[in-house]
Sequence to fold (325 residues):
Amino acid sequence: MFPGSITDVAGLMVGHATERARPTGCTVVLCEAGATCGVDVRGAAPGTRETDLLRPDNLVEQVHAVLLSGGSAYGLDAATGVMRWLEERGRGYPVGSVRVPIVPAAVLFDLWLGDPRVRPGADSGYAACAAASGDAPLQGGVGAGAGATVGKLFGIERAMKGGIGSASLCVGGVTVAALVAVNATGDVIDPASGAVIAGTRCADGRPRSAARAIVGGELPARAQPGMATTIGVVATDAVLSKAQANKLASMAHDGLARTIHPVHTMADGDTLFALGTGSSGLFGEMTVLGVLAAEVTARAVLNAVRAATGLTEPPLPAARDFDLG
Fold:
C-alpha cells in the first residue's frame, strides 16, 4: 500500500457513509472554509452535479464539499444531505442574507449488487459529513467504494471487487493527494510490472488482461453502458485559480490511464474533481503539480483494489484473495 491520504492536505476532512442493506454508500470531502475547484469528465456515461459551475468563466469561485456516491443517478440525492449539514453550520456562498453551500458531486453505478432500491440518499450524505474527520480515511469497500467492482468488460460474472483508495505526496513544501472510488469497466494494472492486480477473470477464476484477450481475437458479448465509472478527487494545498484547478483535474486523469485498461470507455462516466485549498500559501508550478496529481491518482487506484475485500453474494473475489499486487 502507498502511504498518505487526501486528508494530508490541510483544510480537508473525509467521511464515509456505508449502507447496511447492500454494498453501496457515499463519501464526502469537506472543505468548509472553501476551496477552488475544477473538474474533468472523460467517460461517456457520467452522472454529475454542479460541474458546469466549475468552468473558469462562471461566477462561483469556491466549493464547500465534493461528494462521491454509489447508487447511479439516484445517489446524487446524497448531496442534499451534505448541503443541509453545511447550511446548519453557516457554510456556503453568500447571496444576501442566505448562504448556499456549493457541493459538486459524481456517482458510480453499483445498482446490480443486491436490492437496487437501496441507495445513498440525503440522510447518507448528512451521515458522511457527521462522520468526517482529518484522520486518514478507511480504504477498500467503504463509502462510495462499497459496491465498486472492476473488470466488467466480459460480464459481471467475471468481475472482481473494487473499492476506494487514497494517497499523497509532499514535494517542495506542497502536498498533492487523491481519493478515488474505483468501479471500472477495465482492469486495474500495476504500472511498475504491467501485471493485472484486479480485473477480468478467465476460466480458472484468476485475473487476466481483458485488453490482451481482445487483441487476441476474443470479443466481449456486449458492453453495457453506464455499468461502471471511476470517480475521485485530487487536492493540493497550493494556491490555484479555477482554470488551474480544471487543468489539474485533466492532468490527474493520466493516473487513471496508467492503472486502468481500458479507461474512459462508453460504459464509464470517469470523473475527477480537483481542489486547491491554498493553505500552504505557495503557488505551485502547474506541470509539477500535474505530475504529482497523476502519480497520487495512480497510487490511490492501486490502494483501492489492494484494500478491497471480496463479496460472497454475488461471488466477487478481491486482489488479496489471489495474493496479487
Summary: The chain has a mean pLDDT of 94. The two ends are 9 Å apart (CA to CA).
